Amino acid sequence: MVKIAIAGATSQLARSLIDKLSDSGKHEILGLIRKDPAQFPPLPGVEWVQTTYEDELELVKLLQGVHTLLCFFAVHLDGGSATQKRLIDAAVKANVKRYAPSEWSTGEKLDSAVDVIPWYGGKVEVARYLESINKDKEILEYCRFQTGSFLDYLGHPHHSPKHMITIQGVIDFEKRHGLIIKGSMDKEASFTLVEDIVNIVARAVEYEGKWPTIGGISGDRLSPRQQLRIGEAVRGTPFTVDWLEMEDLEAGNLKSEHYLKVDLPSTAADQVEAFSKFATMKILIASSLGLWTVTDEWNRIFPDYKFTKAEEFLTKVWAGKE
Which residue spans of the chain are classified as CATH 3.40.50.720? Predict the structure, then answer.
């Protein structure tokens, strides 16, 4: 049993993990939140604590006795990664043993191509900061948990984990439609079910060995060709595909009426459509470059764990759906 702190505990993935850790009955869990703790349900072993994350001394006090600190900040809202760096500094001063920065998505290829999806720049910036802290000797053990895309999204809108809001993918199973860059049909990306992610992280918290610096959690790998094959099989009809040119996307020209609807809290209502098109183009480019293809460090550490495979999951979700 260890004391675990969750920073950004209101995030969707964090809430799913907190439920898992609470259900285990093994740990003391500190949920750090900006909102009023009275808004959150009582859970066994969980203490909701309000903080602005602005006072480093306060953070040091809150983190006393914490063994493992997991961060789930929205990095695009943390200018210059100042808040997460402050949290890391406080963790070092409080003698926290392990830290997980706010990754939970793309793989290590992001490090050399962060300009493709600039809203993830904070992930790379924080990784560099952690490297600098441990430059001369290890001060803080950390793992960059990388999961690829959430497999759950391919079940939208008929599957949604508790606490999660899904959106359609660029291969849209509901509308039987795909956005595909010409020449990218066999470019793989990792897809991992949220349930599998939280199960592995719960195991990782208890893992007595040293955490890998890069910690890939890879449920399955799918190319656009495989997604179309599965989609057409489970939906019963061919998908319509809009074939896109890389040059058009790089020039900011999305030649399709289909795009992801990305409505972030930080996006003004009159900017949602423009940002959604921008994000769709960037996600397509990033996927073709393998930025969502993750490694399998945690798969190898826990070889007994059986990950949910995409075809099995999607067949179950879409069975009988019109």
Answer: 2-142
Distance CA 186, CA 175 (A): 22
Task: Please give the model's pTM, rounded to 2 decimal places.
Answer: 0.95
Among 50, 46, 51, 49, residue whose Cα is nearest residue 20: 46
How far apart, in whole angstroms, are the C-alpha atoms of residue 179 and residue 284? 8
Q: Which fold has domain 2-142?
A: Rossmann fold (3.40.50)
**What is the separation of C-alpha 23 from the centre of its chain, rounded to a whole number of angstroms?**
22
Alpha helices in 94-223 (DSSP H): 121-133, 194-206
Tokens of 112: 């050399």
Give me 10's structure tokens: 């209101």
pLDDT digits (tens, 9 = 90+) for 39-48: 999 999 999 9
What is the DSSP code string of 256-288? SS-------TTS-GGGHHHHHHHHHHHHHHHHH
**Cβ contacts of residue 160 below 8 Å, gap of 6+?**
152, 166
One-letter identity of residue 7:
A
